From TrEMBL:
<keyword id="KW-0411">Iron-sulfur</keyword>
<keyword id="KW-0963">Cytoplasm</keyword>
<feature type="domain" description="4Fe-4S Wbl-type">
    <location>
        <begin position="19"/>
        <end position="81"/>
    </location>
</feature>
<dbReference type="GO" id="GO:0035731">
    <property type="term" value="F:dinitrosyl-iron complex binding"/>
</dbReference>
<feature type="binding site">
    <location>
        <position position="51"/>
    </location>
    <ligand>
        <name>[4Fe-4S] cluster</name>
    </ligand>
</feature>
<dbReference type="GO" id="GO:0047134">
    <property type="term" value="F:protein-disulfide reductase [NAD(P)H] activity"/>
</dbReference>
<comment type="function">
    <text>Acts as a transcriptional regulator. Probably redox-responsive. The apo- but not holo-form probably binds DNA.</text>
</comment>
<keyword id="KW-0004">4Fe-4S</keyword>
<dbReference type="GO" id="GO:0046872">
    <property type="term" value="F:metal ion binding"/>
</dbReference>
<keyword id="KW-0408">Iron</keyword>
<dbReference type="Pfam" id="PF02467">
    <property type="entry name" value="Whib"/>
</dbReference>
<dbReference type="GO" id="GO:0045892">
    <property type="term" value="P:negative regulation of DNA-templated transcription"/>
</dbReference>
<keyword id="KW-0479">Metal-binding</keyword>
<comment type="similarity">
    <text>Belongs to the WhiB family.</text>
</comment>
<dbReference type="GO" id="GO:0003677">
    <property type="term" value="F:DNA binding"/>
</dbReference>
<dbReference type="InterPro" id="IPR034768">
    <property type="entry name" value="4FE4S_WBL"/>
</dbReference>
<keyword id="KW-1015">Disulfide bond</keyword>
């Protein structure tokens, strides 16, 4: 365990627990995102699917705009689609701002 500059134990990095640790990084950065059986992308996604930190990995890639490689069993194209769907949905809810679904409290 490491300590931060203020002396508190640092949280274990999710990457330390990743199934891909020790694997050839080229597997996770294939020339094509197509995950046909037998391709590097398919192999990478299979490794990811059994990973205990799959969600943390996918979340990191989405939060950091990672546009290359296989992260959390998703291809770059899949992550772009997730980001598009998220940015199209969230602003519409915020823009509405009409309080729909909120109960008014007496008083």
């Amino acid at each position: 365990m490491t300590r931060s500059s203020i002396g508190h134990p640092a949280a274990s990095d999710w990457r330390d627990q990743a199934s891909c640790a020790g694997e050839d990084p080229d597997i996770f950065f294939p020339l094509s995102d197509l995950a046909a059986p037998g391709t590097e992308a398919a192999l990478a996604r299979a490794i990811c699917r059994r990973c205990p930190v799959l969600i943390a990995c996918r979340t990191w890639a989405l939060d950091h705009g990672e546009d290359d490689g296989i992260w959390g069993a998703t291809t770059a194209a899949q992550r772009r689609a997730i980001r598009r769907a998220t940015t199209e949905t969230i602003p519409a809810v915020r823009r509405r701002g009409d309080g729909a679904g909120e109960e008014s409290l007496p008083g």
